[in-house]
């Protein structure tokens, strides 16, 4: 057999040499014609005879001119940047091949593993060895597709090549992240990133590639790889595995990824957790995870790892969402039917994000279906919700539209109680997203969002606030190694109060913040060991700190309009994901951020070495429009690393430093609509922080159980707080009321998750401390004698238990238990009389605590039948919020009546709240 092969190749070799030695010089012009037409012209003009399969070639046009060149040079240019090779026979015969090369002779090491020494004295054992396709024998009745990748080059001495591409849903075109790609019978394997992209290096020649992910159809492809190339794979959702998606997808990242202090909340995961008013609330699910708390029911914002509520960057499709809640945090301002997931970074924050100290909530909306119309709707006790997915150009472009609204005003107006009948509580939010695949290398996504709240707690005041954001994202793939994303965004938040009482002091008050920004992010896949992310970002801020105007003709209120504040924040960043070996992976990032406080502004200067007050003013500076008032900036370091102790057990370390140039002014414990935003300026310095974290991560019995134990220590500088009794709203010289001090926070977070089986859920416990120190040489600027004291959001013990028990595929029970240490509060500890008046003596700030908080919620979930061919899939949720009827205090306050100090507490829900909601997906 070997002799026969050798004789055959020898004859081909003579044929080839004869053809190469007798090439004539030719001249020809190809003007806007296809490659098949170009070959036909060569046949007609120069008597060549081409042998090829017509279906291989597209109608792509070429424009090339040749003068006095050989046929080899003509063919080299025609087939440049394609996977086609050619072989020239005698008598002007030319054979076109896909991928592979027809060899005219055998390599020196073809028979046996003979060592070949090249001209650089390097030893090669696989030099230019031809690739042979073996006959595949399989017991599997399903035929496995065989694909060829890359253009073979006999001069290429490599034995391994890079295979890359995207994995997407075959119906919707949406990317599938965390899909496993492995090479059968080897230890090679990777996972897709959040954009569905993967890259793997595989041996030259024949390989079997398998993809798998819980909830997706499993695929297998035979791949013959001749050179670096691309393989895009479309996967279909496996309906039989749908329930498993909810609890089991993306679990291996807990151990394998280098990131520490990250969590992800999927929209589907939140539907079985009992919440108030039956509303699916992904942000409330986030607070059931370690290290994330709120001040209590009816509170907006989050305290992450001992940080303030303004230290969280909340992004909706790359645009900042300043207030993510409706009605003081009882409802989220996100449509759960249009939201895909939330990625939360509280330890390892990627270098592309900046401007906040504690965390990033990266919220992504769904891409619309590209092939058919879809929708989802729900109705509950006080809200209704609908979302539609509308294909515009099949397999190319689609539109997502979503809307939510409450009909609580209609309910309140129908009551007999006059005080409730005159009250008001309504909100709505609208979202639209357009996504389009321009071609194989370009994608565009555009999102528009608006939310509005109106409520009246008393009969004489109406409060309102709204969010507006717009964002456009352009993803561009240049080649297998380089890609980019360009995002442009605009965010706006406004708040207003209209007071209309019985006297002549009626007024209208409003404030707002407006920002516009752009970010260019590029990705360079240098090699298997290095993946670079780098880019630039810029933001322009405009803050309206407050405006008060008379309301009505008879109002005696004097108008007051504070000067707008302006600022420019910019940054450059570079990040490298470095795979040292299969066990050790690190991610190193650097971000340099800069901030300019801009005019116009009239700014006070205070005497050096004196407290800031009206008596110590030494000068006034006048800055013109867009003139620089103050420059700030610094280097931010992002570092994380993972070491695999074994395949399902890892240890991770992270370090994070950050600057924050935007702050909120509030005397309250938690973020509320009335909080105003304040830019760093001549007097207010940016906040700075450093955080060190360490964690152990373990999966048991495959991915059935997931365990993690994380510890962190964080130090902060220039944390804003306020003098006792500070006046913040409509204060033209608010810097006289602001104190900036040091903060420190530390804690341990423990999480156990059960991902499979009839009983699933998680147990989360956090022990943490959050302290602040406000010290100064001046007594009036000291709090608690300049010593560390608990911050307003210090809650040492936090326990959450979330569980779901599936009785059948259609019926399940869910439970949610939450316990928190009561937050700090300042109590009166005595009083005294002076000249006939009674005065109260208060304790040191935050010396005492309100009672501890705990709550149990239960729900029963009923799904419709799982027939594939039906108009829609229905889902009922019957839940009881606060089953124990616990009267959890939200706040404790004190009132002096007739010389006596009386304590009162307020709570939001002090009785069980039953709810029933209906959902349908079509």
TrEMBL record:
What Pfam families does its record include?
A: CarbopepD_reg_2, Plug
Domain TonB-dependent receptor plug, chain residue ranges per copy: 278-356
Cited PROSITE patterns: TONB_DEPENDENT_REC_3 (PS52016)
Q: Which InterPro entries match?
A: Beta-barrel_TonB_sf, CarboxyPept-like_regulatory, Plug_dom, Plug_dom_sf, TonB-dep_rcpt-like
Membrane topology per the entry is: Multi-pass membrane protein
| This protein's record includes keyword Nuclease | no
Check the UniProt entry and state the signal peptide residues, or none.
1-19
Alphabetically list the UniProt keywords. Cell outer membrane, Membrane, Receptor, Signal, Transmembrane, Transmembrane beta strand, Transport
Provide the protein's localization.
Cell outer membrane
Which family is annotated? Belongs to the TonB-dependent receptor family.
Provide the protein name: TonB-dependent receptor
Origin organism of this chain? Aureibaculum flavum
User: Upper lineage ranks?
Assistant: Bacteria, Pseudomonadati, Bacteroidota, Flavobacteriia, Flavobacteriales
